Structure formats: C-alpha cells, structure tokens
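Researcher: Here's a chain I'd like modeled. Treat it as a single chain, no partners, no ligands.
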Amino acid sequence: MNYVSNENFMLYAARHYDNPFCTTEKEFHEDVNRIKLIHKMFRRYDNDKVINDRLILNHLRLLYNVFDATHLTRMLVFRFSDHLHYLKPFLILLGYWPERITNVGSLGINIIGSDIVMDMKLVESLRRI
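Model: Modeled as a single isolated chain. Structure tokens:
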C-alpha cells in the first residue's frame, strides 16, 4: 500500500503506527483522532480566525512520536488538502515539511511543497513561540 485514500486511511495509519506503549486498540484510535481534532481547529480558524497554535503543535508532536514521519506527513496532507496553507507552517516549524509529498490520494497525486502558500497570520503567530 503506497498511497493513502479514504478507503484505506485506517489501515494505512495502523501499518505505520509505532507506539510500543500502546496496549489497546482504543489508544490507537485516540491517536488517530488527534488528526480530526487538528482538522476541527483549522476549520474553526477558517471561520473565527482563532487558533490554539500550541495545542496543534502538541498534537502534532504526539502524532510524530507514534507514526512514521514520512507516512504521517502523507496522511496529514491527505486529510488537510483544503488546509495545507495552515498545516505547512506547523510542519516547517517542527522540521517535517518535505519539498515533495508523493502518493497522496487514490490517484497517487504528488504535491510540490514550495507550491503551497502559507497563511501569514499563522506564520507570525508561530514565530512568536
């Protein structure tokens, strides 16, 4: 399985999950649900221009601690395809934004990192951290 899609998202996540302290399936789902929480915060930022950037960073740090970095980035780009301009500043700050992201979606779309224009208000907020 070289790509992530709606049909195989959970299987893809499970395949690239590496948490030696995880003892139940519930813990795995809690980790995956962090992605949904971040997406919810990005949608709120769309509407209210309010964001808890530190909470998002904490969620991302936790996710990168339990998933393979390359594959997690691919999963995040897939899930946040409509919010890449918000995701990119966070991943740059954490050192996980690649120049090219391959095999996104069932069509195997490739994304050039430099083509994504970042939200400057969010960039300024993250610079203060």
